[in-house]
Amino acid sequence: MKRIAVVEDELFMREELSDLLRKAGYEVREITEFLDVTGQLLLCSPDLILLDLNLPGVSGFQICRELKQKSSAPVLVLTSRDQMRDELHALKLGADEYLTKPCRKERLLARVANVMKRYEGRPNLLEGPGFLLDRQTYTLYMDNQSVILPKNQGRILEVLMSHGDEAATKEELCVAIWGTTEFIDENALQVNLTRLKKTMAGLGMRRQIVPIRGVGYRLTEEGGAL
Amino acid sequence: MKRIAVVEDELFMREELSDLLRKAGYEVREITEFLDVTGQLLLCSPDLILLDLNLPGVSGFQICRELKQKSSAPVLVLTSRDQMRDELHALKLGADEYLTKPCRKERLLARVANVMKRYEGRPNLLEGPGFLLDRQTYTLYMDNQSVILPKNQGRILEVLMSHGDEAATKEELCVAIWGTTEFIDENALQVNLTRLKKTMAGLGMRRQIVPIRGVGYRLTEEGGAL
DNA sequence: GTTTTCCTTTCATCAACTGTAAGTGTTTTT
DNA sequence: AAAAACACTTACAGTTGATGAAAGGAAAAC
């Protein structure tokens, strides 16, 4: 059975949505605490996320962006009719569909089914700007090429991507690669970074890895200064 | 610029389609010889294929099926309004969209753009029943797992898939793996087949490899007898 | 029951990934 | 300007995993 996560703060609306979806044969998980929404969502690994943009305290946009960085579930955004401008914004952030509230039940269900069908059987790929990464095999897709990254390079890229434009500390990277906080050797990380850079350059990827002195590394913003 | 292949036998219709698409900024390739349509299409490697189902001599369905086995370009099927039943059939064969003729220009362009956007940045994956295969890296996707096949196993599976339910000869397989007709050693193929079988079984794939005595191998039909 | 064809396992070889080590650049600090 | 701290690169050896050869077992055809 397909699992859908509902992120909506208004009680009434949330229950109505859940009800509708359950009757349509989906398993529903409701998010009721709006701290670390992304984390909660990742934990229950839904097949689709229904996301209201107007949440108390947190930015729906921010959540959307984080989700697309850290998971590969499709996101269907709900927005009030008077915030149509949001749509474009949401789509840019990687939302797969949007709907205006209120909206007819059939319409909602149709979109839900449609989006899920589009993702049906699709591999679990992490989206980066202009490329995709399979988190299990570390197969990297760019344009029409695909390359298998060695495990370490893959893990590094995965961590960097999950941080978006922010820096990942060297410690984090080491943990991701070797599973321990004790530094095996800071240099080992260094070497693997060099190798990853080379493969990325070889593929013509626009994003580059830049060091943050004394902290770690991050991926450059799209048109970011070198 | 995106390239679209038009497969349509009626001259008038074909030119109208081509015109429309060219004005919309696409590069168009027309298929005018209806022998080995699939081969021609594979050669020009289009980003989308516009396929009329009523072709002289050949079955549009057959072409559709072959395309989905041998390429990963999206297929948009055109059918006359009085053959609505075809639609279901076409979708089952893996067509990504269908349209009834005649049809409004905007509608056609909208669907074309829509389908292409859906494929945008998507990796070049070959579709098998219930699984996907990356022809470059031989990454195999099933359910939510993904595994990297060793090159030889990948090549074998690729060839078998490209033959659909028909048998691939041992010679073909050897050529695909080692690039030569001279048998390196028939046993080498044997060994790799065994290994492929094992990995497929390990993943719980429904399709199995069955030998055709004295000829070669083929994948079992969905509910095929063992 | 014999022959042909197909299958499986084991073993040595080879290629690829990896960490170590040593040395070179490049910032920042003094 | 010199020193120190940090970042980068290259070369090399150990390990892991894929590959083909060989040998023997199973299944089908006759």
In summary, what is this structure?
The first copy, chain A, is of the alpha/beta class and 226 residues long. Helices cover 42% and strands 23% of the residues of chain A.
> Structural class, from secondary structure content of chain A?
alpha/beta
Protein chain pair with the most extensive contact, residues per chain: A-B, 17 and 17 residues
Q: Total strand count of chain A, please?
A: 12
Order of helices and strands of chain A: EHEHEHEHEHEEEEHEHHEE
CATH class value of the largest domain in chain A: Alpha Beta
Q: What overall geometry of chain A do the principal axes of the alpha carbons give?
A: elongated
Count the DSSP helices of chain A.
8
Helix content of chain A: 40-55%
Q: Please state how the strands of the largest beta sheet of chain A are arranged side by side.
A: 2-1-3-4-5
* CATH fold assignment of the largest domain in chain A: Rossmann fold
Which residues of chain A form runs of ≥5 with pLDDT under 50?
none
Share in β-strands of chain A: 15-25%
- The name of the CATH superfamily of the largest domain in chain A reads Response regulator
What's the overall average pLDDT of chain A, rounded?
A: 87
Number of domains of chain A: 2
Provide the gyration radius of chain A in Å.
19 Å
Q: What is the multimeric organization of the chains shown?
A: homodimer
Report how far the terminal alpha carbons of chain A are from each other. Answer: 47 Å
Q: Based on the structure given, which CATH architecture of the largest domain in chain A is correct?
A: 3-Layer(aba) Sandwich
Main β-sheet of chain A, in a few words? 5 strands, parallel
